[in-house]
Design goal:
Largest sheet: 7 strands, mixed
Number of strands: 14
Number of helices: 12
Radius of gyration: 19 Å
Order of helices and strands: EHEHEHEHHEHEHEEEEHEEHEHEHH
Structural class: alpha/beta
Strand content: 15-25%
């Protein structure tokens, strides 16, 4: 067991995967000699050299395209995009090729590709370095989309993503990279890619989140507990495929739902969860579904980004509105 940060857990998972399978490659801008912009790939170049850890040009579309070609030929590339705002250049390759390779070849080929990228704000960076486009990726048929919220889940989910036969977009919440630490066993055990995690059990209200905003959600749950209100807090972790059953079971017990995410409100992935509950769990609801999100604007510059990111106060206010219904 090691006490590690989230970025260190990512590094542990990459080391483990590369040691277990010589077909696992790491590529991206500055991932080799420099160890990545956040040092997620630190030390890998020294261990495996430039035949398995490849520094690439500043060309995200090329990174995605080369990774698809490698995956089609039996490798398991793990491509890093330095910031998720730069991943838009990869969309053509992801939509038209990575996500369709299994269907296009009638199962003859698969695309075991992982596209890793830091996501979200909170590190005082410009807007292209603070994007939360998980809903856009989740809309693409054939892609899995993962966003962990703790070191242990980052480790286990990344290992499962690398071992998966199909493409996975793995979004790492940037502001959690070094914000939290926990004990992680480097035992090679993966975590399921189709399961939500109940991180705090409760009976009165369901709070659903993923990525960095799980911290604010848990903080709001602790304050609700001081008032005698026990929240069932769910970390979605894998947005696609979505574990609807865990969320629906929770809402059936509590009758109330608050969804929290950093991405903008309109078309955000929270709307998919709300639609799921409204369709399959409507008769269990005793209050309108609440969403606490970022705003329908570009992520603001550092001095005002704290106003954009959902706070524990905003989550608490939404939960208390829901609790007014009996």
């Amino acid at each position: 067991m090691s006490d590690v940060s989230l970025v260190q857990a990512v590094n542990l998972a990459l080391r483990r995967a590369m040691a277990e399978d010589s077909h696992v490659l790491v590529l991206g801008e500055d991932v080799g000699v420099d160890g990545g912009v956040f040092r997620a790939t630190e030390g890998l170049f020294q261990l495996y050299g430039d035949d398995r850890v490849l520094d690439t040009p500043l060309a995200e579309a090329s990174i995605a395209g080369v990774s698809i070609g490698l995956a089609a030929q039996g490798f398991r590339p793990v491509a890093e995009i330095q910031f998720t705002g730069f991943a838009y250049a990869c969309i053509d390759q992801l939509i038209n090729h990575a996500s369709r390779l299994r269907t296009r070849t009638r199962g003859r080929l698969t695309c075991p590709l992982v596209l890793r990228s830091p996501a979200g704000g909170g590190i005082h960076a410009p807007e292209h370095h603070s994007e939360s486009p998980e809903a856009m990726f989740a809309h693409i048929p054939g892609l899995k989309v993962v966003m962990p919220s703790s070191p242990a889940r980052a480790y286990g989910l990344l290992l499962s993503a690398i071992r998966d036969p199909d493409p996975v977009v793995f979004l790492e919440p940037t502001r959690l990279y070094r914000a939290v630490r926990e004990e992680v066993a480097d035992d090679g055990a993966g975590m399921p890619l189709e399961t939500c995690f109940v991180v705090r059990p409760g009976r009165d209200i369901t709070l659903v989140s993923w990525g960095a905003t799980l911290n604010e959600t848990l903080a709001a749950a602790a304050r609700l507990s001081d008032d005698g209100i026990e929240a069932d807090v769910i970390d979605v972790a894998t947005l696609k495929p979505l574990d609807r059953e865990t969320i629906l079971k929770s809402v059936a017990r509590t009758g109330r739902l608050v969804i929290v995410h950093e991405a903008p409100l309109t078309g955000g992935f929270g709307a998919e969860i709300a639609a799921c509950v409204a369709g399959a769990g409507l008769m269990h609801l005793v209050a309108p579904i609440e969403r606490v999100t970022g705003f329908d604007t570009v992520m603001p510059y550092p001095r005002t980004e704290a106003w954009y990111i959902p706070s524990a106060d905003r989550v608490l206010a939404a939960a208390r509105r829901a609790m007014e219904y009996q």
